[in-house]
Specification:
single chain, 140 residues, alpha+beta, 5-stranded antiparallel β-sheet, 5 strands
Length: 140
């Protein structure tokens, strides 16, 4: 095998962990997409940036995932408890709520969850506004 082929295989092998999926993150994103009849936006170069951060060995975080949603089809009478139940079901039992905030009269919910069951701590922030949502997962 040529030197170029070995270099390409090495880059692919190093990049695979960055593209590996987290079941919980994908489940929450899928739940939001299904419930609010939308798809998350594709952010150009996000995976490359995440790979560069991982390869550089930046202190603090070792991984990040981001999903941004626009034009949600939300019911005006939706309660935070309904939304929280959907998220909790999608995440599974290893995640624990840290912060829950509801903005009165605005229809805005923010929830922060933590998972310490693995050898690395993960945090997930879910912010829901009347017409958009953001989900961020960080591995510390």
């Amino acid at each position: 095998m040529s030197r170029r082929g070995i270099e390409i295989l090495l880059v692919i092998a190093l990049a695979l962990p960055c593209f590996a999926g987290d079941r919980e993150f994908k489940s929450v994103v899928s739940a939001i997409e299904t419930e609010y009849n939308t798809k998350h936006m594709r952010i150009p170069m996000l995976k490359l940036a995440t790979f560069c951060l991982h390869a550089a060995g930046t202190p603090g975080t070792s991984g990040m995932k981001l999903a941004v949603f626009d034009h949600l089809d939300r019911r005006p009478d939706e309660s935070m408890e309904e939304f929280e139940q959907k998220v909790t079901t999608a995440m599974g039992g290893n995640w624990r709520p840290l912060v829950r905030v509801k903005e009165r009269g605005q229809g805005q919910f923010t929830m922060i969850y933590a998972n310490t069951d693995e050898n690395k701590m993960k945090m997930m922030v879910i912010a829901l506004q009347p017409d958009n949502a953001t989900v961020v997962q960080v591995t510390l």
